[in-house]
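Researcher: Here's the sequence for the chain we discussed earlier.
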Amino acid sequence: MSCLLLTSVVALTFPMAGDAASDQFVEPVQEFIERAAEAHAQISPSRREQLTTIADYVSEQIRSSQPVNLTFICTHNSRRSQLCQVWATVAARYHGVPGVTCFSGGTEATACNIRTVRALRRAGLSVVTQRDGNNPRYLLQYSEDHPALSLFSKVYTDSPNPNGNFAAVLCCSDADKKCPTVENASVRIPLHYEDPKVADGTPAEAGRYDERAFEIARDMLFLMSQVSSQN
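Model: Thanks. This is the structure I predict for it:
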């Protein structure tokens, strides 16, 4: 049974591998990226195996001259999938991986949670509100050389989201259970993360979101480093 998802859209095309050094990230985030890129030793063997599966998919798409569309999925498209979308985009640029486009989605219609936005800001990214409301739209700037990313919730079948030829990456166990198949996905890969929502409204809130942002950034940088080494 297929599952309807909401997505945040990132539509960017990346340069050939090896061009990363020419890119200019917004200065506050560079230290965070470098720290996360150096933390690969913290990744467990089982998580490395999951990330390598995604890396193999990306590499095969590149070798076949096919588009590389990654859709990260969690329940509400408010926290983990948004973080994955952003850091996968940054990681692909950092490692000079070509042709990657990142999306994120949920099994329910919500919005990008403000706590997620705050964590991204604390990491050094520039995130501003473009439109308020129940489903606000945020613009995130990560590079001086590329347009801002637009973060918001929308149905994954709507243009310009991919309606085929994409990898569905399940970021939470709930979405994984609810979506035994993902409509039109080429491949479905589980990559679960603990929901930082468990700390909402507590003194540990900011720390838990920062921990999850760092973990996801670390994993996405490792993933794209594997792709870079294969191409």
